[in-house]
Amino acid sequence: MSDNSRFSVTRRGFLGTSACTLAGLTLTGCESGGLRFFSDAEASEPGAGGSYEKFSVCANCVNKCGIKAKVVAGRLKKLDPNPHFPKSRSMLCAKGQAGVQVLYDKDRLKHPLIRTGPRGSGQFRQASWEEALDHVAEGLAKIRDKYGASSVLFSSTEGLQEHFFREFSAAFGSANHVRHPSLCLASGNVGFFSVFGTVPAFDVANTQYMIFSGANRLESFITPDTIDLVDVLEKKKAKLVYLDPRYTVTASKADTWLPIKPGTDLAFYLALIHVLITEELYDKDFVARYTIGFDEVAAGIAGNTPEWAEQECGVPARQIREIAREFAYHAPRSFIYKGRRTSWTTNDTPMRQAMAIANALVGNWDREGGLVPKQSLRKGEVDLDVWPPLPDQDCIVSMEEKHPLANAGDGTYLDFREKVMLDEPYPIRGWFVYKQNPMHSLPDRGLTRRMIDKMEFVVVTDIMPTDTAWLADVILPESSYLEREDPVVGFQDPYPFLSMRNKVVDPVHDTKPNFEIMQELSRRLGFPEFFDYKIKAMQRAQLEPFGLEPESLEATGMWSDRKERTYGKSLKEGYRFRTPSGKIELASERFRRRGYNPVPVYEPQDAIPGNQFKLLVGKNAYFTHASNQNNPWLHELMPDNGLWLNSKPAAQRGISNGDIVRVKSAVGEVEVRAIVTERIRPDCVHLPHGFDHISPLMSRVHGAGACDSDLLISREDHISGNAALHETLVTVERIGDGKEVHA
Amino acid sequence: MSRYAMVLDPARCVDCKACMVACTAENDVEVGYHRNWVRAAVKGSFPELSMHIEPGQCMHCDDPPCVRSCPTGASYINEAGGIVGVDEKKCIGCRYCMLACPYDARYFDEESGIVGKCTFCDHRLALGQEPACVETCPTKVRVFGDLDDPDSEVSRLMRTRNTEKRLAHAGTAPNLNYIID
Question: Of A289, A548, A583, A620, which residue has the fewest beta carbons closer than 10 angstroms?
């Protein structure tokens, strides 16, 4: 999430200098969230049994859309969209609507749990917070005393209370904290950053021509892009070219769907650049004035003709030419969309870099309908004047050596797991996980399970009894986003604004906000000064530069000093891009200095053997990663998953729709229902993410369907270290019809 | 008088099912039942494919067979707006209305023993709010309004867009209109 919440304070500056962050490249991980708040005139206090409405901010995915909570007699009745919210306007998706069940689901974590039986046995006992916190503090201190503070690994996922967890790990003295971006959008960020020195937004609402690669925006929602995309397509204001081996909903609404061979998108983009240059369709004035490296790109793509690309990616050369011409014709109201997906191949960053280069060539930078650099409102900070200790060790993954251009503070998850398994360069024996479920989000679940077995002490803070929590020694139940106050959040899209997350109701169960958990543990572990303030004071400090109080946001649930997206600031005389040259770098100096190709170079994809399939990951609009398949209102939309298999190979194997198939990869196998469909290339299969939870406490999805992480092999993008999730080959065989297996 | 209707644009629907969950939350619909739906159908063979996605719910017909078939008068047309409703006090759970409805828009709630269906969120209309499915829709597929008001958005859409009704041959005069151009 965008912003700078992670590095926002003087005090927080320290996070940028921990052992893991020597590279100091403060790439923004994802875009970021906001806050919440507000109560109406007749508001009564939460939990007092009153009836009232409050604006707040959703937390069921990363978007953080605006919500209005209706509380009746102390109980959350309904969540409506906040119409004032610039990012999400008047919408709330299925996940957001199901937020009511985040509070009231019988399966949620209700009190601290301490494991009493063997790991995985499910034997836990209920504990008081005092006891659980004492136990956690003792467990962490024991690892610290025995092996050193860095032998506790911390890992977390974005959220408005995540930075407290990051401060905690730094104050504890561990050099090892790994975050989600290397399971997310790290390669796209590094690719676009290399060219523009920032990661831009895309002006969907005002564009005329878009090219998307696998960015399934109509099932994987990003606000406001999803809203704007449907609008411009339905009104025929813009055309969409969509590349994806699957016929997704986005494919169905596109003007052109190209079922490209998986992993070959870079060939398509290099050929597109080839056409732009050889047919002189690029914006010569823009390239001359704002960029460097044109000649190097031109030389680099000399052999990447559309005819060459057709052989690689399967898109006809004629069509590549037409698309390149149309893309250039509509510029600057045209763009190639970055997307937010995981990496697909080990050569993913150059693919994203090529997208960025093609954008730059047609001069759509910082122009209406093109790419727009994000702007932020600079929030104030709580200045505590405390500094964390230097970690006792170096980070187990030397980001400087391995992925010097990745965001060092985020780490690269697969490298961390590998080092833990090898006990290199020193043993990791404790794991503190916040709001993350590595048992699902990392490829190769079997290996992650063995990683947990290396640990002497595992703590998980979450709102649900996830598969990772199921294997923990202590589970700390966090108050949900509806039961706590969070810091002020700055948004960047479509223009900068502030919001806050309000406490909608009192905690339903015996839970605590992460901030309080961090306060309590820091007191027990001897560094209480890091959390010696209140959230309300933090909100006040954050809002102070704008002359606002938390109450100032109550009327509309947001605040901004502007009303629309603006363009062109970075095109003014004297502007320096955050690249080594200060210009848009068609050939990246940053890459060159680190020994990478300064321009993107294609690596041919191995042919898919005839008896195998490429396994594709993907999402739909009902779930966020593996987090809410168990929500009763979402579960009934899709109770389990199945393997998408094209009808032709299905027929060859005697597989009918609904049959049970065995799917095998190099690291695991699953049995799952086959969904025989026309909606996927014959050489690919797709298994929707987030099913087959091992935790019986997730009562609705325990054992339901199959887990893609059981099959995915561990590969990472060379440059960013982002997990490359389209490198897995599988075999598929029929083992019976659905009735036989289920009977 | 009001004459409530919807105009729906299937081209805008992405099958996200936000409308279904919003309805569940707003109307306390038990898990396992829904008052509205989204259906998607794919045609063709790889890679020549097309997909049609379409949401639906009670069509609030002007001549509703569910009302005609109800032996107790529980199913009725509300004079204010033409909303087809079920009077919970009169419903005996015989389910004749479910058989009569050509749209399969009603369900029998085993818990309560009565029939449930879309109400156009009349309790929200009374507060000046739109039905929950309309308000929450990320891509604004549904437009709700009063056909007796010539300035309403539904009236404007009925004048300016080509629309059709589902199962028009059933003769029930439904009030959901689907844009086809």
Answer: A289
